[in-house]
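User: Could you check the structure of this?
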Amino acid sequence: MNSDIPKIIGNSGAARLLLSVSGMLGNKVAMSLLVAGLVGCASDGRSTNPDGGGSDAPPFTNGVSTLSGAAEAGLVDGVRGVARFNNPVNVAWGPDGKLYVADYDNGKLRVVTEDGTASTVISANTFRQPFGLVFAGSTLYVSTDANMNGMKDSAAGMTGSVWRIDIGAKTATIVANAIGRPRGLAALRDGRLALADYEHHVIETLDPQTGRVAVLAGVWNEKGFADGVGAAARFDIPYALVQRADGKLIVTDWNNNKLRIVGLDGTVTTFAGTTQGFQDGAMSAAKFSHPQGLAMTSNGDLYITDLGNYRIRKLAGDGSSVQTIAGDGMNGYLDDDDRLASELSGLEGLSVKADGSMIYVADGTRGETVPSNRIRQVKMQ
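Assistant: Sure, the predicted structure tokens are below.
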């Protein structure tokens, strides 16, 4: 996680890659990539990892693939094997059929086409550390950890801001400046935005026309776990949120290892998750370990990045069950036709096409010095 709060650090690096290779069975399309990655860099500093650079881009699979980016960090626009990111943290599938990327450590808003070609939409000294992304119709809203002057505070967590993006003009206009640390954004059908402020443990609403922010549930700077109404409810690092067809919000409650339901009247109940762990099956028994990213299809299916388990989970729209749809539970990098044999690392944010046919994942570094600066895709149909 990209913050001052506790991070999850897996067993990564060359030894981790060697274990991945030695334990692989079957058709692992990324074996050569992992083996080559162990040799590091050439003497002149050029990467020798074949997951980057021109025609050396890894092949697409029928399961989990690398859409764009590479192990190494950088800021490069271009075709799939050339493009570089620096800790991509979130993605949003746009109504124009393109994927928008919060390129956090580069301080840019990027866009990636379905063939993996990347370009830059917003590049400005005052637009820094983007994280939350949501489309309200054709309008894109982005939250940044920094304020409208490009400054971020670490102690108070008060510089977070929300911007309105004009994609065609490539401009960003401030909507609400220095309102806390909102990293989760959801577009409400009444025209407002819902915000999840992960540092201050509250769910809020924002009127993008006036900039007015109001607390919907939870109490500012009081973390905990409690169902209830408004100020009686408690969260512990609420991160992402979406609005269901019934108007209620689903929220990933990161440190409580649960999914919560928040009504627009402020009523909070627990939707899924028991104790921290990993368990698929009936929703009443399902377990998560730091659920963070959240996306929803048109039929109500929910997809969740389960950071502690290094997996992507699916919660059926009817609320009946939870299942793993990608990741083998190991912190690593592996593309594979078999989604459950693939490996993921950062997986902080994700987005899904409305029909559920493809999931996109920001597979960054979680704020650590690790070789993971990719956009991954999960083919579901």
